[in-house]
Amino acid sequence: MRLDKFLCDTVNLSRKEARDSIKKGHASVNGVKVTDFGFQVNESSDTVSFKDTPVSYEKYVYYMLNKPDGVVSATTDPNDKTVIDLFADEGRKDLFPVGRLDKDTLGLLIVTNDGDLSHHLTSPRHHVAKTYLTGIDHPLSESDIKALCEGVELKGDGITKPAQVRVLSPKLIELTISEGMYHQVKRMLKAVGNEVTSLKRLSIGPVRLDDNLKEGEYRRLTEEEIKLLKE
Ligand code: URA
Asked: Among 111, 112, 196, 220, fewest CB within 10 Å belongs to which?
């Protein structure tokens, strides 16, 4: 990998800033100052330092975010703060959210730079279960629950796959779905004459939102969580 790319991926620098810094002599490889920004480094065996501090390169990184209200699940947005803006301190330019939560939906969002994992989790072929804590406008009847579990028609998208409903209280349910249609939970509740009043994702497949994460906080996924998500 080129030295300028290495520094872009590890230190919070644009490509131009990385090149300028390298030209000024701020980078060294294995203890030797390098001013050629096209210099090839081996990210697993070379020791790269930036301003005399060793910088280690991780190819893939994985985080769980407790998404707060009011931020969009995108990498950039002309009007709104994005979930990736919350990761500014990480100094990586290649992060993206896995799938989307609506701007007003809270809870578990995986953020990574691993395109294969993202594809695995969002591909319609894999049917990864996602559970949402869902506040609703009024209690569900037995027939509403049956309809949600068996499948409801969503205009333009067809009939939803079997879902699970757990009633926690008259106006709070857990809904588990295995697809990712646009606004799926809100539209499913609408299809049975109800309305979502709050929405928070609790889990994706076997990985559950860490109760210790406050809204807007994130942490690295553990090795075990990464393994479970890849299975
Ligand atoms: N379903 C929705 O309606 N919104 C979300 O953000 C996620 C699932």
From this structure: 220
| pTM, two decimal places | 0.85
Expressed in angstroms and rounded, the spacing between residue 108 Cα and the centre of ligand 1 is 12
DSSP-derived secondary structure letter, 37: T
pLDDT at residue 224 greater than cutoff 80: yes
Q: Catalytic residue at 69?
A: no
CB 177 within 8 A of CB 184: yes
What domain range is 21 assigned to? 3-55
115 and 93, same structural domain?
A: yes
pLDDT band at 14 (very low <50, low <70, confident <90, very high): confident
CATH number of the domain residue 148 falls in? 3.30.70.1560
The alpha carbon of 60 and the centre of ligand 1 are apart by a number of angstroms equal to: 27
User: For residue 65, what are the β-bridge partners?
Assistant: 109, 218
